Structure formats: C-alpha cells, structure tokens
Amino acid sequence: MRTWVTQLRKGLVEFCVLKVLSRGESYGYQIVQSLRVLEELTVTESTVYAVLTRLGKDGCLQVRAAPSPDGPPRRYFSLTALGRRRLTEMNAYWNDLVAAIDLLGDREMGNGK
To answer: Which pTM value belongs to this model?
Structure first.
C-alpha cells in the first residue's frame, strides 16, 4: 500500500470513531463494524481499540461496563462534552480543508481567481 494512503487513514480513524459515537453510545465491536463499511478506511480492531483508549485518556469518552448476553461484560463508549467539542472542531477543520483543496483544484484548472 502507498505510504501516503496509510498515513491519511491513520489520521482519519479518530475523526471517524468520534463520528460513529456522535450517533449514540456503542461498544467496541459495534464501532469496528460501523467503520468497516467504509472500505477506503480499512481499520483493524486493534487500531480502533487503541484510538478508544487514547480518546478515553484525553477525556473525550465516557466508558461504562454492562453485562453481555454471550460473554464478558461489554464496555460501552459515549462522547463527553469534550469529545463533542473535539468532533465539532474536527468537522470544521475537515470542511475547511476540503473547501481549500477544492479551491486549489479550481485554481489549477484555471477556474478560480
């Protein structure tokens, strides 16, 4: 795989995890499954759990344990106020970045100022 694609994906996993959790509380395996529908992202369980651990340490996630019908207790993750703020900031930055890249492309094509 091309190095730049790998680096870009790594940077997007945190953003995507926060996006998934913005829909509501979820446990790790559900988050992994939600992200796996994005073929372009190609995430592993270990990557997602590492991001969840980091976001928890940063104060962006609240974690609670609940019984599982078929195994050990599940850890449910939800966004804290700080997590929602981080997602809002990431969303704004993403939108600005996409707009800037689009503008750059327009300029390169002779369509912009």
So the answer is: 0.86
